[in-house]
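A reminder from the course coordinator: this example appears on the midterm review sheet, so study it carefully.

Given structure:
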């Protein structure tokens, strides 16, 4: 591990940007990456972040036989920096969209399940809508260029 002074100088001297590996080494934090399409389909940056981190957690740690996983509110806050209210709001949005199911057994922590079939459906719908918009824009551009000789009002 770098000494703090040499590591911070390495951060400052790197003209290409901050090295994720160096940040991980210095601070022991893995980055949280998410696809912007998650914001598009949820309409919420916090819901997109929660969804992305949940998907990452499931891929890394797995689920129980029913597809549920457990992660405490404190773990979410420490790992994502989302406050309790941000977590609750994000989860509410995901439940509203049919992307998240929750269960709590007697004397059991809250468990979560991502509804991947619904996520795939929303992703496909979003992509189809984007393709339709692109096609419509192309048709409008073609129509504008073909009417270049007509007078404008």
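Designed residues:
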């Amino acid at each position: 591990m770098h000494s703090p002074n040499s590591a911070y100088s390495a951060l400052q001297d790197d003209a290409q940007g901050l090295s994720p590996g160096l940040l991980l080494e210095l601070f022991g934090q893995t980055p949280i990456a998410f696809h912007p399409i998650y914001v598009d389909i949820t309409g919420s940056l916090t819901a997109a972040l929660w969804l992305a981190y949940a998907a990452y957690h499931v891929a890394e740690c797995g689920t129980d036989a029913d597809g549920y996983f457990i992660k405490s509110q404190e773990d979410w806050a420490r790992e994502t920096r989302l406050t309790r209210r941000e977590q609750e709001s994000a989860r509410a949005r995901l439940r509203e969209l049919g992307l998240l199911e929750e269960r709590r057994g007697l004397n059991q922590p809250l468990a979560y399940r991502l509804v991947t079939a619904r996520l795939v459906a929303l992703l496909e719908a979003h992509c189809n809508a984007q393709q339709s918009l692109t096609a419509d824009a192309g048709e409008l551009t073609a129509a504008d260029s073909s009417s270049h000789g007509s007078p404008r009002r």
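The CA atoms of residues 21 and 27 lie 10 Å apart. The chain is about 60% helix and 5% strand.
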